[in-house]
Amino acid sequence: MNALRCLGLGLLALALPVHAEQLPRWEVGMGVGGVSMPDYRGSDETRNYLLPFPYVAYRLEWLKADRNGVRATLFDSDKAELNLSLGATPPVRSKNNVAREGMPDIKPMIEFGPSLDFNLWRNEADNTRLDLRLPLRAAIEARSNPRSAGWVFSPKLNIDFVGLGMPAGSKEGWNLGLVAGPMFADRRQNAYFYTVDEEYARADRPAYQARSGYAGMQFLTSLSRKFGKTWVGAYARYDNLHGAVFENSPLVKRSSYITYGFGVTWSFLQSSELVDVGDN
To answer: Where does the secretion signal sit in this chain (predicted)?
Structure first.
């Protein structure tokens, strides 16, 4: 439940294409992403991460994997898509976090699940669209003996503006994305981050049992653009935990905060075959 779900896919999945356009069937390249984020949502201790990663894109008619994430079109509709939603969270060593001192470490986590996405509106120029996205993801601890860490549901409204600063219909220019929505998590997911068992309780950290329910609001702004074979993007996100079912946990030290990050990819090898992308 960290600010950046995955330093590779999450950082680069800043805006979906609105215009129909032709892109190479496959691409190979490299990238780098950076992010500043708290140890966990509600932590008052922040870490900075810088991560190089390989960039590989492959686009089939029904399945696409690229900077916009993994998308599987399982039924033919210009108003709805069933996509695959992926994410991850980095580990947290409790000895490096004052609030969690003496408690078990937070293990790295992988999240995956379906996202049912609906197009609510698009303008005639087809460079602005409003979508409702309904991702439901299962969280799994990434360890030698994988273990479930619950479920997260984060419905959101997403509006994309494509080709800013360019003539209508242009595929060039800047792409702006605005996303807002609540988060909900089951008891196991909330307990993983916010429960304090009796054995770890102390004077300044009373025992606490987290429950399922509302997990706060998120508001995200992203900006991205392609320059030839290079793509650049950046985002800022505001999290508000006021009213969250775990707000009274002694591990919640901050109820609102801003995180931010950037990504750059370079595509140095591409297929000569082009496929249609966008115009969902």
So the answer is: 1-20
Which helix (H) or strand (E) segment holds residue 230: the answer is strand 230-240
Q: What angle do CA 12, 15, 16 make, to 5 degrees?
A: 110
Which tens digit of pLDDT belongs to each residue from 229-253?
999 999 999 999 999 999 999 999 9
Residues near 23 by Cβ (< 8 Å), separated by ≥ 6? 59, 66, 274, 275, 277
The structure tokens listed for 251 are: 């591990």
Torsion of CA 19, 22, 27, 31, to 10 degrees: -30
Q: What is the pTM of this model?
A: 0.85
Structure tokens at 76: 């033919």
Half-sphere exposure of 96 (CA within 13 A, CB side): 11
Place of tokens 């807002």: 180
The pLDDT tens digits of the residues spanning 98-119 come to: 999 999 999 999 999 989 999 9
The answer to whether 194 and 246 are in contact (CB under 8 A) is yes
The set of residues, in sequence order, having a beta carbon less than 8 Å from that of 75 and lying 6+ positions away, is 82
CA distance 75 to 58: 20
Residue 253 CB burial class (10 angstroms; 0-12, 13-18, ≥19): middle
Kindly give, in sequence order, each residue whose CB lies less than 8 Å from that of residue 224, ignoring residues fewer than 6 positions away. 14, 15, 174, 175, 177, 231, 232, 233, 234
